[in-house]
Amino acid sequence: MSIEALRAILPAYAHAMARNLEVLAEETVLDETAKWSCFVASALAVGEPRTLKAVNDAAHEAGLTPEAFEDAKTAAATMAMTNVYFRAVHLITAREYEHLPSRLRFSRDHSTAYELCCMAVSAINGCGACLDSHEAELRRRGVEPVQIQAALRIGAVVNAVARVLATEPVDHPPFSGVLT
């Protein structure tokens, strides 16, 4: 399934998501590796099967390397852990948890594409601490705000598409827009 096929199965009420998918797939602010890595990491983070298949197929078509797929998978897996932990530490009223070492193991030396994936996934997972940390690292590397924004937009749109498809039956045509 391609991005175009994914767009085609979205119901009428999600037409804005379909258009945003098209725009983001053609985005030139990020290089192809960073763009498709962000798509893959975001699709992994949301886990909806049709979205994940379409994104993986599109990333393969775009020539995403096995190493870039691994980076995207690593980012999604690592953020699944760290986003929960650091979001919880931030939300807990007692401040002493902020001063305790996390004692979670994860690698810190990754590519810029990996860091952009972490931004997209952290946005999906709603972890402000991780967003701040990865944004600072990206800015330190000279990444422009518009590029960081592109990663955030990819995460937002992939999340929305997956949420829509998670509520739509696989064996039914797209929603007509009329509730009964």
Structure, described:
- This protein is mostly helical.
- It has one domain (about 5-165): AhpD-like (Up-down Bundle).
- It has eight helices and no strands.
- Helix 2 (about 15-25) crosses helix 8, helix 3 runs antiparallel to helix 4 (about 50-60) and helix 3 (about 30-45) runs parallel beside helix 6.
List the helices and strands and how they pair.
Layout: H1 3-9, H2 15-25, H3 32-46, H4 49-61, H5 66-91, H6 112-125, H7 128-140, H8 145-167
Helix pairs in contact: 1-2, 2-8, 3-4, 3-5, 3-6, 3-8, 4-8, 5-6, 6-7, 6-8
Short description:
With 180 residues, this protein is mainly alpha-helical. α2 packs across α8, α3 packs antiparallel against α4 and α4 packs across α8. The C terminus is likely disordered.
Highest-level CATH class: Mainly Alpha
CATH topology: AhpD-like
The biggest beta sheet, please? Answer: none
- Radius of gyration in whole Å, from Cα? 17 Å
Index terms:
180 residues, mainly alpha, AhpD-like, 68% helix, disordered C terminus
